[in-house]
From TrEMBL:
The keyword Kinase belongs to this UniProt entry's keyword annotation: no
Keyword vocabulary terms for this entry: ATP-binding, Chaperone, Nucleotide-binding
Single Gene Ontology MF annotation: ATP hydrolysis activity
Annotated Gene3D superfamilies: GroEL-like equatorial domain
PROSITE patterns: TCP1_1, TCP1_2
InterPro entries: Chaperone_TCP-1, Chaperonin_TCP-1_CS, Cpn60/GroEL/TCP-1, GROEL-like_equatorial_sf
Family: Belongs to the TCP-1 chaperonin family.
Record-given protein name: T-complex protein 1 subunit gamma
Length: 77
């Protein structure tokens, strides 16, 4: 089986180390903080603006994750 070929931009650079590790943790914590308040018996509703400009009120974590525009790779996963 062949390894997949990745075509990346020239301006893209790979980083590694503890700085990236801490950045991944911070991004994951930010998403968890958004979802945390929608869980449990005392869950709160979230008011979201969807892509078309409409207002959505929900406490469904999946609906909230769909509406988030995440740029961080660890937060998307």
């Amino acid at each position: 089986m062949q390894a997949p070929v990745l075509v990346l931009k020239d301006s893209l650079k790979r980083e590694s180390g503890s700085k990236v590790h801490h950045g991944n943790i911070q991004a994951s914590k930010a998403v968890a903080d958004i979802i945390r308040t929608t869980l449990g018996p005392r869950s709160m509703l979230k008011m979201l603006l969807d892509a078309s400009g409409g207002i959505v009120v929900t406490n469904d974590g999946n609906a909230i994750l769909r509406e988030l525009d995440l740029a961080h790779p660890a937060a998307k996963a």
